[in-house]
Specification:
The protein is of the alpha/beta class. It contains 14 helices and 7 strands. It has a 7-stranded parallel β-sheet with strand order 3-2-4-1-5-6-7, sandwiched between helices. Helix 2 crosses helix 3, helix 2 runs antiparallel to helix 6 and helix 4 crosses helix 11.
């Protein structure tokens, strides 16, 4: 059996190999994804995002355990920041979820961002599909953090949870462009801290002002993940959101938009590869760089000229 067949047969070793192949762009990666694609689209993909220090990993750990108690198989993709110097990543989320690593019904994979903006690794979507095809009922995607450039989670998830904490300036964080819009559920974690009532009221007020959400008004839930408080209620709310998506038809719309974005990203990658191959083969790129640098040509005309040569 090839790797894709082994994944479908339930081999965790093959699952790990398949994600590695996709992440490192091995020659086998495209064939693996082609074989697995017809078996995707069944998992509930849940995005977890929030400010650093909000307790995202601890909350993900508790949520995963709650779903396991329901008998569901859980996949977790934890995105970690990559060093711009060494290219390495700490991949520390596995340390926080050490209990889950012993559970056969859970698969945890840490992935570095590798310079990708948006809080997600470029290969996150493929890893989600592999876990989906493997038979995971729920797939968590935990992002690096949250900020103006880190709203890509909404493209990968069915339900996005924004985790906030009292006393970290989250009232300012929430106002940031896009943050209110991406949250389907807001979780105030470490809710035993001072300032939780103030944050809750401010968040409710901002959500009431935000007209983007009409049918679904994002609920605000309080949790103390370290003590497993409020987690059961949060799971129920996530379930309610998924039910809303299914009954309203919003799930079909979201997934169609995701497919469109994936196709555009793949086209972008493929055209980029073709252009790079053309530049390497022509051997003329360094000369063009000099001409642009010396103002003999402008960069816009050069790019159009290259694209014309590649795509004709």
């Amino acid at each position: 059996m090839n790797i894709a067949e082994q994944v479908l047969a339930g081999s965790r070793r093959a699952l790990s190999k398949a994600i590695t192949a996709v992440e490192n762009e091995y020659d086998t990666a495209v064939d693996i994804m082609k074989a697995l694609y017809p078996h995707t689209g069944r998992a509930h993909v849940i995005g977890i995002t929030g400010a650093p220090g909000a307790g995202k990993s601890t909350l993900t750990d508790k949520l995963a355990k709650a779903y396991r108690r329901q008998g569901k198989k859980v996949g977790i993709i934890a995105i970690d920041p990559t060093s711009p110097f060494s290219g390495g990543a700490i991949l520390g989320d596995r340390i926080r979820m050490v209990d889950l690593t012993m559970d056969e019904g859970v698969f945890i994979r840490s992935m570095g961002t590798r310079g990708s903006l948006g809080g997600l690794s470029r290969k996150t979507a493929e890893a989600v599909k592999i876990l989906d095809a493997f038979g995971m009922d729920v797939v968590f995607v935990e992002t690096v953090g949250v900020g103006q450039s880190e709203v890509d989670i909404v493209k990968a998830a069915d339900t996005t949870i924004v985790v906030m904490v009292p006393g970290l300036g989250d009232d300012i964080q929430a106002i940031k462009a896009g943050i209110l819009e991406i949250g389907d559920v807001f979780a105030i974690n470490k809710a035993d801290r001072e300032g939780v009532d103030k944050l809750h009221v401010e968040l409710d007020m901002m959500l009431d002002l935000n007209q983007e959400h009409t049918d679904w008004r994002p609920p605000v839930k309080r949790t103390v993940a370290s003590r497993d408080e409020g987690v059961t209620e949060l799971v129920e709310t996530i379930g309610e959101h998924f039910e809303y998506l299914q009954t309203s038809g919003a799930l079909t719309v979201r997934r169609r938009e995701r497919t469109k974005n994936e196709l555009l990203d793949l086209l972008d990658e493929e055209i980029g590869r073709k252009v790079m191959r053309h530049l390497q083969e022509s051997g003329n790129f360094d000369n063009l760089v000099i001409q642009v640098e010396q103002r003999e040509k402008d960069p816009y005309s050069v790019v159009r000229e290259i694209l014309h040569q590649v795509l004709r």
